[in-house]
Amino acid sequence: MKIILASSSPRRRELLLNLNLKFKVIKSEVKESVDINSNPKTVAMSLAFQKALDVANKVEESEIVIGADTIVVFDNEILGKPNDEEDAFNMIKKLSGKYHEVITGISVIRLSDNKKVVDCEITKVKMKDIDDYKIRRYIDTKEPMDKAGSYGIQGYGSLLVEKIEGDYFSVVGLPVAKLEEILSRHFGINII
Ligand SMILES: Cc1cn([C@H]2C[C@H](O)[C@@H](COP(=O)(O)OP(=O)(O)OP(=O)(O)O)O2)c(=O)[nH]c1=O
């Protein structure tokens, strides 16, 4: 049995490594286009599914392929990765002092027996009140630029967060407990 992580995200790779699972990484070539009017859960799950399926179609049918997608939702608006520093500034400014949701879609596919599982995890995050100067200094670290919602809770972004309700690992990019449930229930893989 082989497991493939269909992701270019170093955070996802690290979270999976923590579980001592043997896996390979193959990046998907899905172009992430988001229809901002669709339901956020559907967007995260659909992107996760597309990533997993894209890679599943390129490898042996018996391989188990994992895909994920993380989005930030504030006031029904989907915030993906920032286009530039100004975009990052505006996103963090929006999130400042308020609650938002981080949704990570997760999909696991094995084509040999046509198993295709999709689910998502939702975490609430409350950001501290952050003044403009601090937002600029945070952006100067470059940390926001490749992250949904323009922050990384695992890095300097930890200094911006007041509290969270739900799965921390899902905010970082991979809901590992949910993944374990899926692997155990649908694929007969028990990690511990
Ligand atoms: C909110 C938040 C997001 N992120 C990251 C997780 C994801 O890597 C990224 C969202 O982009 P994604 O499109 O979910 O993933 P990716 O492009 O990095 O990797 P791939 O599509 O190849 O799997 O934002 C953090 O690292 N910390 C956070 O606190």
Automatic annotation (TrEMBL):
**What molecular function does GO assign, one term?**
UTP diphosphatase activity
Q: Which domain of life is it from?
A: Bacteria
In this chain, the site described as Important for substrate specificity is at R11, T70, Q154
Its GO biological process annotations read: nucleotide metabolic process
* Listed cofactors: a divalent metal cation
State the compartments where it is located. Answer: Cytoplasm
Please give an example of a GO cellular component term from this record. cytoplasm
Q: Which residues form the active site?
A: D69 (proton acceptor)
Catalysis performed (reactions): dTTP + H2O = dTMP + diphosphate + H(+); UTP + H2O = UMP + diphosphate + H(+)
What Pfam families does its record include?
Answer: Maf
Q: List the InterPro entries.
A: ITPase-like_fam, Maf-like
User: Which keywords, in A-to-Z order, does the entry hold?
Assistant: Cytoplasm, Hydrolase, Nucleotide metabolism
**What enzyme category does the UniProt record give?**
hydrolase
What EC number(s) does the entry state? 3.6.1.9
Its biological purpose is as follows: Nucleoside triphosphate pyrophosphatase that hydrolyzes dTTP and UTP. May have a dual role in cell division arrest and in preventing the incorporation of modified nucleotides into cellular nucleic acids.
Similarity comment: family membership: Belongs to the Maf family. YhdE subfamily.
Q: What is this protein called?
A: dTTP/UTP pyrophosphatase
Q: What's the source species for this entry?
A: Tepidibacter formicigenes DSM 15518
